[in-house]
Amino acid sequence: MIRQLIVGLFCEGPTDHRFLQNIIRRTLEDIALTESTVDLEILGVERILVDKGTYVEEVVRAARKGFRELGIMILCIHADSDNLTDTRTFQFKILPAIEAVDEINDAICNSLIPIVPVAMTESWMIADREVLKREIGTKMSDDDLGLNNRIKGVRNPKAVIRAAITSAYSHKSKRSQRPTISELYLPLGQKTRLDILLKLESYQKFREGIREQFRMKNIILSK
């Protein structure tokens, strides 16, 4: 018998979902394929939009709305660290949000998985430089594009992507159609290699969050 799973996504920013929805779905399917003891079908990763408030208030609203309106069984909650560590984000956003949801007894999704890229979602987007360069449309070297060998410790990865696009098109004709960063979120989410993302501790934590929820739901074996 096939078990079905509906997953929700609450994103802190307005554009991150374009990248994260595909990363979440692909990661869920990867873990289910390699570790699941049941046949599992991911029905979708639904973005949950809620009214503005504090981060904790928004997560509670998303957990309640997603459960009541869409029947989500797991809610991924995103927050950028805006720093080179995720300590403060977990301390002041993620953990208080999880505690707030746990305290609610009515109809709500209380299976939460944090996604906390360091320092922002775009740090995951620059991890796979070969895919990034293909989507930008260039064969220039990493050095010429400002994409050095480090995929960790970049404070402003969004600026790195913009600079790479500018460098890639600096010698092309003005008629060349250069992509905008907003056009890269969706294809990079579809094509970024998960084994490359595994080099990032923040992505490793996300995968372990999935495993924890899968264990609780008897989808994979407990340790």
Explain how this protein is built.
- With 223 residues, this protein is of the alpha/beta class.
- It has 2 domains: 134 residues, Response regulator (Rossmann fold, 3-Layer(aba) Sandwich), CATH 3.40.50.2300; 62 residues, no CATH class.
- Helices cover 48% and strands 12% of the residues.
- The chain has 10 helices and 4 strands; from the N terminus they run E-H-E-H-E-H-E-H-H-H-H-H-H-H.
- It has a 4-stranded parallel sheet with strand order 2-1-3-4, with helices on both faces.
- The longest helix is centred in the first third of the chain and has 20 residues.
- The protein is globular.
- The protein starts with a strand and ends in a 7-residue tail after the last helix.
- The mean pLDDT is 93.
Concise overview:
The protein has 10 helices and 4 strands. It has 223 residues and is of the alpha/beta class.
Question: Which structural traits does this protein have?
Answer:
single chain; 223 residues; alpha/beta; Rossmann fold; 2 domains; four-stranded parallel β-sheet; 10 helices; 4 strands; globular
Strand-helix topology:
Elements: E1 2-10, H1 16-35, E2 39-47, H2 55-70, E3 74-78, H3 87-102, E4 112-115, H4 122-125, H5 129-136, H6 142-145, H7 157-169, H8 185-191, H9 194-197, H10 201-216
Parallel strand pairs: 1-2, 1-3, 3-4
Helix pairs in contact: 1-8, 2-3
Helix and strand run: EHEHEHEHHHHHHH
Strand tally is 4
Task: Name the CATH homologous superfamily of the largest domain.
Answer: Response regulator
* Structural class category: alpha/beta
Rg value: 18 Å
Give the terminus-to-terminus CA distance. Answer: 24 Å
Major sheet attributes: 4 strands, parallel
As a percent range, the share of helical residues equals 40-55%
- How large is the count of helical segments? 10
Briefly, what CATH class of the largest domain?
A: Alpha Beta
CATH architecture heading of the largest domain: 3-Layer(aba) Sandwich
CATH topology of the largest domain: Rossmann fold
Strand order of the largest sheet: 2-1-3-4
